[in-house]
Input
Amino acid sequence: MDPAPPVYAALDALGIPYERHEHPPVFNAEDASKIWDPIPGVQCKNLFLRNKKGDRHYLVILEVAKRADLRALVKIVGDDRLSFGSPERLMANLGITPGSVSPFGLIHDSRHAVRVLVDADLRHAARLIFHPNINTASVTISGADLERFLATRGNAVSWVRVAPGD
Output
């Protein structure tokens, strides 16, 4: 089953304008960047993380060019060590597979258990590029519309400062 239509339906229901772009599958931010270069917008990567005990999960949204310093994020969230969540945890919490991680996976988080950390630099972007829960397509929405989408999900959302990449 194609996981993109429920994303489009959620955006349509909120009146959020978006542009769709179909493309070959991409499996990481570097590959996606090659596809996204001609698309106007800030290229975003999304990291699914867990704490040491595995009882809290985080979705970190930031620009592709930035590097997520997990030690700095630990200080921001006040949790213990963070590491990447397994494909099984990703599926259980966001209903998506590796390579397709995006904020739109939150439509599957009925428990509102995943905490969202968004780089504050994305808030006022004219266009942001994400996968619609599948790595063979991309959508662009505004930073304000991302904020509006996140506000409807019921998940805890924090806008944080992420230092530029190396």
Remarks:
- The CA atoms of residues 46 and 101 lie 6 Å apart.
